[in-house]
Protein backbone atom coordinates (compact mmCIF):
# COMPACT_ATOMS: atom_id res chain seq x y z
CA UNK A 1 0.00 0.00 0.00
CA UNK A 2 3.01 2.33 -0.20
CA UNK A 3 1.69 3.67 -3.52
CA UNK A 4 -1.35 5.08 -1.70
CA UNK A 5 0.77 6.32 1.16
CA UNK A 6 3.06 8.42 -1.06
CA UNK A 7 0.13 9.93 -2.96
CA UNK A 8 -1.57 10.95 0.29
CA UNK A 9 1.68 12.46 1.59
CA UNK A 10 2.06 14.53 -1.56
CA UNK A 11 -1.57 15.65 -1.45
CA UNK A 12 -1.16 16.88 2.12
CA UNK A 13 1.60 19.16 0.82
CA UNK A 14 -0.69 20.59 -1.87
CA UNK A 15 -1.53 23.84 -0.16
CA UNK A 16 -4.72 24.99 -1.90
CA UNK A 17 -6.17 21.55 -1.25
CA UNK A 18 -5.24 21.42 2.43
CA UNK A 19 -6.46 24.99 2.93
CA UNK A 20 -9.87 23.84 1.76
CA UNK A 21 -9.87 20.65 3.82
CA UNK A 22 -8.73 22.46 6.98
CA UNK A 23 -11.89 24.53 6.88
CA UNK A 24 -13.71 21.30 7.63
CA UNK A 25 -16.55 22.25 5.33
CA UNK A 26 -16.82 18.84 3.77
CA UNK A 27 -17.60 16.87 6.92
CA UNK A 28 -19.74 19.68 8.37
CA UNK A 29 -22.00 19.81 5.35
CA UNK A 30 -22.26 16.06 5.29
CA UNK A 31 -23.30 15.99 8.95
CA UNK A 32 -26.54 17.66 7.90
CA UNK A 33 -27.48 14.64 5.87
CA UNK A 34 -27.90 11.02 6.86
CA UNK A 35 -24.72 9.16 7.75
CA UNK A 36 -23.80 7.03 4.81
CA UNK A 37 -21.06 4.74 3.66
CA UNK A 38 -17.34 5.26 4.11
CA UNK A 39 -16.08 8.45 2.47
CA UNK A 40 -12.56 9.08 1.22
CA UNK A 41 -12.85 12.85 1.56
CA UNK A 42 -14.02 12.69 5.21
CA UNK A 43 -11.13 10.40 6.00
CA UNK A 44 -8.59 12.55 4.20
CA UNK A 45 -9.94 15.72 5.80
CA UNK A 46 -9.36 14.35 9.30
CA UNK A 47 -5.89 13.18 8.24
CA UNK A 48 -4.97 16.67 7.06
CA UNK A 49 -6.23 18.11 10.34
CA UNK A 50 -4.01 15.72 12.28
CA UNK A 51 -1.06 16.68 10.08
CA UNK A 52 -1.74 20.34 10.86
CA UNK A 53 -1.35 19.55 14.54
CA UNK A 54 2.15 18.39 13.78
CA UNK A 55 1.64 14.66 13.55
CA UNK A 56 4.23 13.55 11.05
CA UNK A 57 4.60 11.27 9.22
CA UNK A 58 0.96 10.63 8.64
CA UNK A 59 -0.53 7.27 9.33
CA UNK A 60 -3.32 7.01 6.78
CA UNK A 61 -4.51 3.64 8.03
CA UNK A 62 -8.15 4.74 7.82
CA UNK A 63 -7.77 5.05 4.07
CA UNK A 64 -5.32 2.21 3.50
CA UNK A 65 -7.58 -0.28 5.24
CA UNK A 66 -10.30 0.56 2.74
CA UNK A 67 -8.21 0.04 -0.36
CA UNK A 68 -9.86 -3.30 -1.00
CA UNK A 69 -13.25 -1.55 -1.27
CA UNK A 70 -11.89 0.95 -3.72
CA UNK A 71 -11.44 -1.27 -6.69
CA UNK A 72 -9.74 -4.38 -7.88
CA UNK A 73 -7.38 -2.36 -10.05
CA UNK A 74 -5.01 -1.66 -7.22
CA UNK A 75 -2.34 -4.28 -7.17
CA UNK A 76 0.82 -4.78 -5.24
CA UNK A 77 3.22 -1.96 -5.88
CA UNK A 78 2.83 -2.03 -9.62
CA UNK A 79 4.33 0.81 -11.51
CA UNK A 80 1.07 2.51 -12.44
CA UNK A 81 -0.59 2.17 -9.05
CA UNK A 82 0.44 5.55 -7.66
CA UNK A 83 -0.95 7.34 -10.69
CA UNK A 84 -4.20 5.36 -10.56
CA UNK A 85 -4.58 6.03 -6.88
CA UNK A 86 -4.01 9.75 -7.41
CA UNK A 87 -6.76 9.73 -10.06
CA UNK A 88 -9.02 7.86 -7.67
CA UNK A 89 -8.36 10.27 -4.79
CA UNK A 90 -8.97 13.34 -6.93
CA UNK A 91 -12.15 11.84 -8.42
CA UNK A 92 -13.46 11.16 -4.91
CA UNK A 93 -12.84 14.73 -3.83
CA UNK A 94 -14.35 16.04 -7.05
CA UNK A 95 -17.60 14.14 -6.49
CA UNK A 96 -17.60 15.25 -2.85
CA UNK A 97 -17.41 18.87 -4.04
CA UNK A 98 -20.34 18.32 -6.38
CA UNK A 99 -22.32 16.66 -3.60
CA UNK A 100 -21.62 19.56 -1.24
CA UNK A 101 -22.78 22.03 -3.87
CA UNK A 102 -26.10 20.26 -4.24
CA UNK A 103 -26.75 20.69 -0.51
CA UNK A 104 -26.44 24.45 -0.73
CA UNK A 105 -29.44 26.65 -1.61
CA UNK A 106 -27.95 27.85 -4.87
CA UNK A 107 -26.92 24.29 -5.51
CA UNK A 108 -25.85 24.44 -9.11
CA UNK A 109 -22.25 23.73 -9.85
CA UNK A 110 -20.72 22.53 -13.05
CA UNK A 111 -17.89 20.02 -13.10
CA UNK A 112 -15.50 22.71 -14.26
CA UNK A 113 -16.08 25.04 -11.34
CA UNK A 114 -15.39 22.78 -8.38
CA UNK A 115 -12.43 23.64 -6.23
CA UNK A 116 -10.75 20.37 -7.18
CA UNK A 117 -11.07 21.21 -10.85
CA UNK A 118 -9.74 24.69 -10.19
CA UNK A 119 -6.71 23.30 -8.39
CA UNK A 120 -5.72 20.42 -10.66
CA UNK A 121 -7.64 20.89 -13.89
CA UNK A 122 -6.42 22.35 -17.15
CA UNK A 123 -7.22 22.08 -20.83
CA UNK A 124 -5.48 20.38 -23.70
CA UNK A 125 -6.02 21.39 -27.30
CA UNK A 126 -5.81 18.84 -30.06
CA UNK A 127 -5.54 20.02 -33.66
CA UNK A 128 -5.83 17.57 -36.52
CA UNK A 129 -5.29 18.31 -40.19
CA UNK A 130 -6.38 15.82 -42.83
CA UNK A 131 -3.71 15.32 -45.52
CA UNK A 132 -6.29 14.68 -48.23
CA UNK A 133 -8.82 17.52 -47.89
CA UNK A 134 -6.54 19.76 -45.76
CA UNK A 135 -9.51 20.24 -43.44
CA UNK A 136 -8.71 21.14 -39.85
CA UNK A 137 -10.50 20.08 -36.73
CA UNK A 138 -9.87 21.31 -33.24
CA UNK A 139 -10.92 19.87 -29.92
CA UNK A 140 -10.43 20.90 -26.31
CA UNK A 141 -10.41 18.42 -23.52
CA UNK A 142 -10.09 18.70 -19.80
CA UNK A 143 -6.92 17.30 -18.31
CA UNK A 144 -6.09 16.47 -14.73
CA UNK A 145 -2.46 15.59 -15.44
CA UNK A 146 0.03 15.44 -18.28
CA UNK A 147 1.31 11.95 -19.04
CA UNK A 148 4.48 12.02 -21.12
CA UNK A 149 6.37 9.26 -22.93
CA UNK A 150 10.02 8.87 -22.01
CA UNK A 151 11.11 6.06 -24.31
CA UNK A 152 13.74 6.53 -27.01
CA UNK A 153 16.34 9.21 -26.38
CA UNK A 154 14.33 11.31 -23.94
CA UNK A 155 16.48 12.24 -20.97
CA UNK A 156 14.90 15.41 -19.60
CA UNK A 157 11.39 16.50 -18.76
CA UNK A 158 11.64 19.34 -21.27
CA UNK A 159 12.46 16.87 -24.05
CA UNK A 160 9.48 14.76 -23.03
CA UNK A 161 7.16 17.78 -23.09
CA UNK A 162 8.58 18.82 -26.43
CA UNK A 163 7.72 15.42 -27.84
CA UNK A 164 4.30 15.49 -26.18
CA UNK A 165 3.48 18.68 -28.07
CA UNK A 166 5.24 17.86 -31.33
CA UNK A 167 3.36 17.11 -34.55
CA UNK A 168 2.40 13.47 -34.84
CA UNK A 169 1.57 11.73 -38.13
CA UNK A 170 -1.52 9.56 -37.96
CA UNK A 171 -1.02 6.82 -40.49
CA UNK A 172 -1.34 3.07 -40.99
CA UNK A 173 -3.54 1.53 -38.32
CA UNK A 174 -3.70 4.90 -36.66
CA UNK A 175 -5.36 6.79 -39.51
CA UNK A 176 -7.75 9.61 -38.81
CA UNK A 177 -11.44 9.30 -39.59
CA UNK A 178 -12.09 12.50 -41.52
CA UNK A 179 -15.64 13.87 -41.39
CA UNK A 180 -15.32 15.61 -44.72
CA UNK A 181 -13.64 12.84 -46.68
CA UNK A 182 -15.88 10.26 -44.96
CA UNK A 183 -12.93 7.91 -44.86
CA UNK A 184 -9.80 7.09 -42.90
CA UNK A 185 -6.99 9.36 -44.00
CA UNK A 186 -3.42 10.20 -43.17
CA UNK A 187 -3.38 13.26 -40.92
CA UNK A 188 -1.22 15.47 -38.75
CA UNK A 189 -2.03 15.89 -35.11
CA UNK A 190 -0.66 18.35 -32.59
CA UNK A 191 -1.38 18.61 -28.89
CA UNK A 192 -0.80 21.78 -26.90
CA UNK A 193 -1.73 22.92 -23.44
CA UNK A 194 -4.51 25.45 -23.83
CA UNK A 195 -5.02 26.27 -20.19
CA UNK A 196 -2.37 25.49 -17.61
CA UNK A 197 -3.64 24.13 -14.29
CA UNK A 198 -2.88 25.84 -10.99
CA UNK A 199 -1.24 22.70 -9.68
CA UNK A 200 0.40 20.69 -12.42
CA UNK A 201 0.81 16.91 -12.19
CA UNK A 202 3.24 15.28 -14.61
CA UNK A 203 3.43 11.52 -15.03
CA UNK A 204 6.50 9.97 -16.64
CA UNK A 205 5.37 6.88 -18.49
CA UNK A 206 7.92 4.42 -17.22
CA UNK A 207 5.57 1.53 -17.69
CA UNK A 208 4.53 0.82 -21.28
CA UNK A 209 1.46 -1.24 -21.97
CA UNK A 210 2.18 -4.49 -23.75
CA UNK A 211 5.83 -4.40 -22.80
CA UNK A 212 7.52 -6.21 -19.99
CA UNK A 213 9.63 -4.27 -17.58
CA UNK A 214 10.03 -0.65 -16.86
CA UNK A 215 12.01 2.24 -18.36
CA UNK A 216 14.51 2.64 -15.59
CA UNK A 217 16.65 5.45 -16.94
CA UNK A 218 17.19 8.87 -15.40
CA UNK A 219 14.96 11.67 -16.58
CA UNK A 220 16.16 15.06 -15.36
CA UNK A 221 13.56 17.55 -14.21
CA UNK A 222 13.96 21.17 -13.16
CA UNK A 223 12.85 22.72 -9.88
CA UNK A 224 11.22 25.51 -11.88
CA UNK A 225 9.29 24.54 -14.98
CA UNK A 226 8.03 27.01 -17.55
CA UNK A 227 5.16 25.59 -19.57
CA UNK A 228 5.07 28.50 -22.01
CA UNK A 229 6.83 26.66 -24.88
CA UNK A 230 4.18 23.92 -24.79
CA UNK A 231 1.14 26.15 -24.65
CA UNK A 232 -1.28 27.56 -27.19
CA UNK A 233 -3.28 29.62 -24.73
CA UNK A 234 -2.38 33.10 -23.54
CA UNK A 235 -1.40 32.25 -19.99
CA UNK A 236 1.26 34.85 -19.23
CA UNK A 237 3.47 33.08 -16.73
CA UNK A 238 2.84 29.36 -16.49
CA UNK A 239 5.86 28.81 -14.26
CA UNK A 240 5.71 25.98 -11.74
CA UNK A 241 7.77 25.32 -8.69
CA UNK A 242 8.30 21.69 -7.74
CA UNK A 243 6.97 20.67 -4.33
CA UNK A 244 6.40 16.91 -4.49
CA UNK A 245 7.93 13.94 -6.31
CA UNK A 246 6.91 10.28 -6.24
CA UNK A 247 9.53 7.67 -7.11
CA UNK A 248 8.98 4.00 -7.85
CA UNK A 249 11.85 1.76 -6.84
CA UNK A 250 12.18 -1.69 -8.34
CA UNK A 251 12.54 -4.61 -6.05
CA UNK A 252 14.84 -7.16 -7.67
CA UNK A 253 14.45 -5.27 -10.94
CA UNK A 254 10.89 -6.50 -11.42
CA UNK A 255 8.33 -3.93 -12.41
CA UNK A 256 5.45 -6.00 -11.08
CA UNK A 257 6.60 -5.46 -7.55
CA UNK A 258 8.27 -2.49 -6.06
CA UNK A 259 8.30 0.21 -3.52
CA UNK A 260 7.39 3.87 -3.56
CA UNK A 261 9.04 6.77 -1.78
CA UNK A 262 8.24 10.44 -2.05
CA UNK A 263 9.93 13.80 -1.66
CA UNK A 264 8.01 16.80 -0.40
CA UNK A 265 8.78 20.43 0.30
CA UNK A 266 7.38 22.10 3.41
CA UNK A 267 6.33 25.72 3.89
CA UNK A 268 9.91 26.68 4.79
CA UNK A 269 11.09 25.29 1.44
CA UNK A 270 12.85 22.39 3.13
CA UNK A 271 12.80 19.08 1.32
CA UNK A 272 12.08 15.76 3.01
CA UNK A 273 12.19 12.20 1.82
CA UNK A 274 9.42 9.99 3.15
CA UNK A 275 9.94 6.25 3.07
CA UNK A 276 6.97 4.53 4.71
CA UNK A 277 7.06 5.81 8.27
CA UNK A 278 10.58 7.25 8.10
CA UNK A 279 11.19 10.90 7.31
CA UNK A 280 14.61 12.19 6.25
CA UNK A 281 15.61 15.82 5.95
CA UNK A 282 17.44 16.49 2.68
CA UNK A 283 20.49 18.70 3.00
CA UNK A 284 20.85 19.26 -0.71
CA UNK A 285 17.42 20.80 -1.14
CA UNK A 286 15.61 19.78 -4.33
CA UNK A 287 15.72 16.04 -5.16
CA UNK A 288 16.17 16.56 -8.93
ZN1 LIG B 1 -17.16 12.63 3.29
ZN1 LIG C 1 -10.24 14.86 -45.10
UniProtKB/TrEMBL annotation:
<dbReference type="InterPro" id="IPR028889">
    <property type="entry name" value="USP"/>
</dbReference>
<dbReference type="InterPro" id="IPR038765">
    <property type="entry name" value="Papain-like_cys_pep_sf"/>
</dbReference>
<dbReference type="GO" id="GO:0005634">
    <property type="term" value="C:nucleus"/>
</dbReference>
<dbReference type="InterPro" id="IPR001394">
    <property type="entry name" value="Peptidase_C19_UCH"/>
</dbReference>
<dbReference type="Pfam" id="PF00443">
    <property type="entry name" value="UCH"/>
</dbReference>
<dbReference type="GO" id="GO:0016579">
    <property type="term" value="P:protein deubiquitination"/>
</dbReference>
<dbReference type="GO" id="GO:0005829">
    <property type="term" value="C:cytosol"/>
</dbReference>
<protein>
    <submittedName>
        <fullName>Uncharacterized protein</fullName>
    </submittedName>
</protein>
<dbReference type="GO" id="GO:0004843">
    <property type="term" value="F:cysteine-type deubiquitinase activity"/>
</dbReference>
<dbReference type="InterPro" id="IPR050164">
    <property type="entry name" value="Peptidase_C19"/>
</dbReference>
Amino acid sequence: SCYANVVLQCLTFTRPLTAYLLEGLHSRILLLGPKKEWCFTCEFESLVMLAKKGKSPLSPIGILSHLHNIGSNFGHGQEEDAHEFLRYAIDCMQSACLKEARKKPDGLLADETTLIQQIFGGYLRSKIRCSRCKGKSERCERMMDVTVEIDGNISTLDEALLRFTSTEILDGENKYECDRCKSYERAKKKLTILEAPNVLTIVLKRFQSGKFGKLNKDVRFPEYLNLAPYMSGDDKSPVYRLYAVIVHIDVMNASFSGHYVCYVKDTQSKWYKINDSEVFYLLNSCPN
